[in-house]
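Lecture notes, part 5. Sequence design as translation. It can be helpful to think of inverse folding as translation between two languages: the language of shapes and the language of residues. The source text, in structure tokens, appears below.
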């Protein structure tokens, strides 16, 4: 990096003894700085900064950017080796003045730190790393110091039972206190014979076995299998009844002379069509993952492989997969190859500038020309291909022939676990989802006892009462011949010590990248079938990093029993909750999601042909430290992810706009409805006004026709004619308010005053039935009419108190 060029020469001695580290903002929960040194240079990138050792990781913070440099930051349990005896292939500038420390990681990284000379910086860091990188006790790991925090673990037994229930087509919501959760069908049954781990120390407490086999027969068969790991069902096809089973090697002994009838009945039960139809059996393949030479060599130690003559309708197949030592050495060579030929090497030199060596006829070879043969020499891709081919063959036998398959190696917890879990992934699309992947790992890797503590070189629970010499000897059988085993000549007490407090050499000899190799195989399948997996390559990388860091408790110890004894699920965090929270932050656009996932395209098994199983380097994992730019996802995938992110943002904006539009439409409809109601009210009021106006005019004419005078008065100065015009106007714009009083009085009866005939005068002047020809009133009863006129005249006084506001007549 440009900022790091020449930084070594400008460092001041006062920076070495800075009293405060200032790293608080970079620390995780419960993470404490044990030692820190300033002025340290990361030789890979020639960048200076602060190097600190915490109780969780080796932390490097850049002096220039004040940020964590991921290349120089590695969890302590991920470190495979540290050395101060560093021999650089090419000598970088000023390297002779530096004290070097090289850190080799299990995650393919090789980093070199350069310290100021004669300052004891390197010694201080080395001493702390040696103490905390390999703690003596399990409880010293960071996972116990951090606690569950927000990544609280769920009951692992419940997770396993839920997966078993899925086999039976049922669901389990909670774990009952009694054993009422035990279920069965016409082929298989669940058993709790191992509830106290008396049947097998490294098996789960609940097993699925053929229904035709009793618990007594299981106990009898256990003595015939290494570490008492009897054949049990790992996966089953509910439709065809075919099963995928696992076990350890049988104890047939020299010349394959030993037999066990209970074991033979148990294996036969795996391939029967139903519990009541023993005679109707399907084909059974017994798959031995080892090379045939290794299987024969195990006969000397009492192990070996089955004879097809002892197991009805069976065929024994050897896959030729090498042991844990070969895998460890192969990964070491691959790591060296990547570091040597990468753009960011541990000695700070680009692979383009290296000398590839001399030739016989003179001259030098380029480093690029020799890289291809060097990659082949590592053997890693060949081993990955062998595992893939074996798993594909197993899946094809179950899917195409409806045959049952029993898989084992020596102990049944390394190669067996790889093959069974990978074949299940090919057979069952559920395992290719996030939830299914978790269920698969919980079942085949954790519950069935893959020895993670041994393979990662971390301490486990010390249990002298149950860790017998025989168990520890059989644990070494997966490493090759007995004569080559480092524990073959050890005493029983030393064998027990290997379980609780093993020596450095013993622990190192057990370390092997078995899980890493399996995840590499999953990536190869993801590369072949990009639409079949819900998760992405980045998810697999983060999953491996979390496992190797030992930050969570899921992958501590060697088996379910040890994790239960240590109370892991109660006191440590859960890796699955951590990964789920990461995905929740980014939603469907998070990099853990596979953009090309289309479950409808691969609803059943995926069966890759042998020609397609040609693995490649896993860029996102193998090349991320040495070739960071090439390790990123392909340009097409990056563009697709960017477009998908923009599409998601646009979709969210569209949904928000549509929601607002719906709200506005709803409000508009509501206002329109209110306006419609107001119009109806206005029309009704206008009709009422018109009706009242017509009635008032009729009343006025009727009153006047009776010879009465209508007097209008108001508190404003208006004439009587104006008031009459205003009151009975048809103009709706006339809205002048009036305090209008209406009084009606009868016209003075002149006939009464003058003494004339009042009735005659009233009839002549007012009666509409009075004509020149005489009275046309019915029956001519004018006397009655006269009395009504008199009464009407008497009631005129009631109108004097009538007051009407003319606003009532507004339109």
């Amino acid at each position: 990096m440009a900022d790091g060029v020449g930084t070594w020469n400008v460092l001041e001695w006062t920076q070495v003894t800075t009293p405060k580290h200032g790293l608080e903002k970079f620390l995780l929960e419960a993470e404490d700085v044990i030692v820190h040194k300033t002025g340290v240079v990361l030789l890979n990138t020639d960048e200076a900064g602060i190097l600190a050792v915490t109780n969780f990781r080796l932390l490097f913070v850049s002096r220039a950017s004040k940020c964590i440099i991921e290349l120089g930051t590695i969890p302590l349990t991920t470190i495979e080796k540290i050395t101060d005896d560093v021999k650089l292939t090419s000598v970088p500038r000023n390297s002779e003045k530096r004290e070097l420390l090289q850190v080799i990681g299990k995650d393919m990284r090789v980093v070199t730190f350069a310290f100021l000379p004669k300052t004891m910086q390197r010694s201080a860091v080395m001493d702390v790393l040696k103490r905390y990188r390999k703690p003596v006790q399990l409880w010293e790991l960071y996972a116990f110091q951090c606690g569950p925090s927000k990544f609280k673990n769920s009951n692992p037994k419940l997770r396993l039972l839920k997966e078993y229930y899925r086999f039976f087509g049922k669901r389990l919501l909670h774990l009952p206190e009694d054993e009422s959760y035990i279920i069965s069908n016409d082929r298989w049954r669940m058993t709790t014979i191992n509830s106290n781990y008396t049947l097998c120390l490294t098996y789960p407490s609940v097993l699925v076995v053929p229904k035709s086999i009793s618990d007594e027969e299981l106990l009898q068969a256990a003595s015939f299998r290494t570490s008492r790991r009897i054949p049990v069902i790992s996966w089953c096809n509910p439709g065809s009844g075919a099963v995928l089973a696992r076990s350890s090697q049988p104890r047939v002994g020299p010349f394959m002379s030993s037999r066990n009838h209970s074991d033979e009945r148990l294996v036969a039960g795996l391939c029967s069509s139903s519990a009541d139809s023993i005679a109707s059996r399907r084909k059974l393949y017994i798959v031995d993952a080892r090379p045939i030479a290794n299987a024969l060599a195990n006969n000397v130690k009492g192990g070996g492989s089955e004879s097809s003559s002892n197991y009805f309708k069976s065929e024994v197949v050897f896959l030729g997969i090498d042991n844990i030592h070969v895998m460890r050495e192969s990964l070491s060579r691959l790591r060296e190859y990547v570091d040597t030929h990468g753009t960011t090497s541990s000695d700070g030199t680009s692979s383009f500038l290296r000398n590839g060596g001399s030739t016989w006829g003179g001259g030098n070879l380029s480093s690029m020309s020799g890289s291809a043969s060097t990659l082949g020499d590592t053997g890693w891709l060949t081993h990955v291909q062998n595992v893939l081919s074996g798993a594909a063959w197993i899946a094809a036998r179950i899917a195409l022939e409806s045959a049952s398959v029993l898989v084992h190696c020596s102990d049944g917890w390394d190669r067996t676990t790889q093959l069974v879990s990978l074949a299940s992934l090919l057979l069952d699309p559920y395992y290719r989802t996030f939830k299914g992947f978790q269920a698969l790992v919980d079942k085949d890797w954790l519950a069935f006892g893959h020895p993670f503590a041994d393979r990662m070189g971390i301490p486990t629970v010390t249990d002298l009462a149950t860790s017998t010499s025989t168990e520890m000897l059989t644990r070494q059988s997966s490493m090759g011949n007995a004569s080559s085993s480092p524990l073959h000549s050890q005493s029983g007490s030393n064998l027990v010590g290997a379980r609780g407090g093993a020596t450095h050499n013993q622990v190192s000899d057990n370390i092997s990248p078995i899980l890493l190799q399996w995840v590499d195989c999953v990536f190869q399948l993801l590369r072949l079938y990009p639409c079949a997996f819900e998760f992405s390559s980045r998810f697999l990388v983060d999953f491996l990093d979390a496992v190797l860091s030992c930050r969570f408790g899921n992958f501590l110890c060697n088996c379910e029993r040890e994790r239960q004894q240590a109370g892991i699920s109660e006191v440590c965090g859960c890796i699955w909750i951590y990964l789920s929270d990461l995905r929740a932050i980014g939603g469907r656009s998070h990099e853990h999601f596979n953009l090309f996932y289309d479950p409808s395209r691969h609803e059943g098994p995926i069966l890759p042909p042998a020609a397609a199983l040609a693995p490649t380097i896993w860029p996102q994992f193998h090349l991320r430290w040495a070739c960071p730019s090439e390790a990123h996802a392909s340009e097409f995938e990056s563009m697709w992810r960017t477009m998908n992110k923009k599409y998601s943002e646009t979709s969210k904006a569209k949904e928000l706009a549509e929601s607002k539009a719906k709200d506005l439409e709803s409000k508009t409809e509501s206002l329109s409805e209110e306006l419609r109601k107001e119009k109806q009210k206005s029309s009704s009021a206008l009709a009422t006004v018109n009706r009242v106006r017509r009635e008032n005019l009729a009343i006025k004419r009727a009153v006047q026709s009776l010879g009465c005078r209508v007097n209008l008065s108001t508190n404003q100065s208006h004439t009587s004619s104006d008031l009459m015009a205003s009151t009975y106007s048809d103009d709706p714009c006339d809205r002048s308010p009036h305090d209008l009083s209406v009084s009606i009085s009868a016209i003075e009866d002149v006939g009464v005053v003058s003494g004339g005939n009042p009735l005659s005068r009233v009839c002549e002047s007012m009666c509409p039935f009075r004509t020149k020809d005489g009275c046309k009133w019915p029956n001519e009863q004018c006397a009655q009419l006269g009395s009504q006129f008199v009464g009407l005249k008497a009631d005129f006084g009631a109108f004097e108190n009538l007051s009407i506001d003319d606003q009532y007549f507004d339109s």
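The translated text above is only one of many valid answers, since several sequences can fold into similar shapes. Residues 635-705 form the longest helix (71 residues).
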